Amino acid sequence: MEELLHYVWKHKLLPLSELETTDGRIIEILDPGLHNRNAGPDFFNAKVKIGGTPWAGNVEIHLKASDWYRHGHDRDPRYNNVVLHVVALADMDVKTLNGDYLPQLVLQIPQVLKENYEELLHNDQYPPCYRIIPDLTRLTVHSWMAALQTERLEQKTEAIQKRVDQCDGSWEDAYFVTLARNYGFGINGEAFEQWALNVPLHAVGKHRDDLFQIEAIFMGQAGLLQLESIPERYQAAALNEGYFAKLRNEYLYLAHKFSLKPMSYEPWQFLRLRPQNFPHIRIAQLANLYYERKAGLSMLLECETLDQLRQLLQTHVTPYWETHFLFGAESPRSSKKTSISSANLLIINTAIPMLFAVGRHRQREDLCDRAFDFLEQLKAEDNHIIRMWKACGLEVKTAGDSQALIQLKKQYCDKRDCLRCRIGYEYLKKLRA
After folding, report:
1. Model pTM?
2. DSSP state string for 231-255
3. pLDDT, tens digit (0-9, with 9 covering 90-100), for 42-92
4. d(Cα 172, Cα 178) in Å, to the nearest integer?
5. What is the C-alpha separation between 265 and 246, in angstroms, rounded?
6. Which residue in 295, 311, 354 sits closest to 176, CA to CA?
7. What angle do CA 100, 103, 107 make, to 5 degrees?
8. pLDDT tens digit string along 365-380?
9. How many angstroms separate the CA atoms of 208 and 376, rounded?
10. Is omega for the bond preceding 15 within 30 degrees of 0, making it cis?
C-alpha cells in the first residue's frame, strides 16, 4: 500500500482542507519532485512551503513514521537532505543522521482510490482494467503505445549490451548469440543462447568454407553428438545411417584441434514442439546461414528494406535434415526453409533490436529510425497476448503495436504494476470522478 501513497503524492491527490505538519505548520506542495525508484529518497528535488518558508529537497514516504528507523535512514547520509517525511501514520518523531528532526505530513489515501486500486490488484478478469479500455481516447492509447514500444526496444538493447560484455566487447559475436537465441522461438531460447556462447566463432571461421565442418562444430557444441542425446528407439538407426558417426568423428577431431568442450544436451526441450522447431533443425539452419555468410552484423546493417532482411534471414537445412528431424528419425523430404512467418519473428526479435542497439551505441539515428520504420511496416504478431488485447477493444495493426502490448502485459499487467501504467491511471481517474 506504500506504493499507492507514492501515487497519491506524485499526482497530488490531496484533500481539499489545508495540509499541516504534525506540529501544526501549514504545508503547501509546489512540486512533488521526481519519483526515484532506485536507492535513496523516494522523490528528488521537491519544492514545498512549510510554515511559509520555502524548501527544496527530497521527500521520503512511509506507511508508518517508525519505518524511517526500521529501514535505517537515520544512519544513511543520503537522507540528510530530506525536507519532508510523508506518512499514513505518524507513530513517532524521526531524526536524520545529522540529528535534525524532520517535519512530518500525515497524508491519507482517499477511500475510493484505495478501493479502486484493490480492485485492480485482485480482479480475476484479465487484464483487470478491461472495462476502461473502450473509453480511452486515441491520443492516450497512441502516446502510451509509443512509449511502450520504445521501452521494449530499450529493454532488448540492455540484453544485447550484456551479451556484448559476455563476448568481450564483440558486437559481431553478440549478434550471433542474439540471433541464435531467437532461433529457439521461445521454449529453447535459453538453451540456444547457452549454446551460442559456447560456439567459438574464431575457430568456426577457420572452416567457414566447409559446411560439414561447421555443422559438426555446431552440433557437437550443442551436445547433440553424444549418443545418449538420441532417444533409444532411434539410436540403432542413427548408427546404421552413418551420418551421425561421421559428424561425431569430425567433431572429435575439431574439438581436439581447438580444445572444445560441448554443453550438456539436457537443456534442449522437445515436448510439444513441432518437428521443424527441433534443435537439430534450427542448428542445421544456422549452420547454413553461417556458411552462406548471412549471419554477420555488417550484412544486417546493410539491409534497408524488409525484403532484404527476409532474404538475409531465410535459409534451409543441410541434405541429411531434409529427410530427418532427429538423428535416425526419418521424415518426409522437405528443404525445411525458414518460413516467412519465422523470418518476420526473427526480424522483430533480432534484427530490429540489433539495429536499435547499434544505433544507440554508435549514435546513429538513422539505424534507430530504421528500426522503428520496420516495426510500423510489419504486420502485428498473432499470439495469445495480442488476441487478449484485441478482445478488450484495442486496435492492433502493426508489429510496433504488438510489441508495445507484449511489453504492457509482461512488465505491467503480470507484475500488477498498475500505478505506473497510463491505462491504470485513467482507470483510477475515471472511477474517482
Report:
1. 0.80
2. -HHHHHHHHHHSHHHHHHHHHHHHH
3. 999 999 999 999 999 999 999 999 999 999 999 999 999 999 999 999 999
4. 10
5. 19
6. 295
7. 150
8. 999 999 999 999 999 9
9. 36
10. no
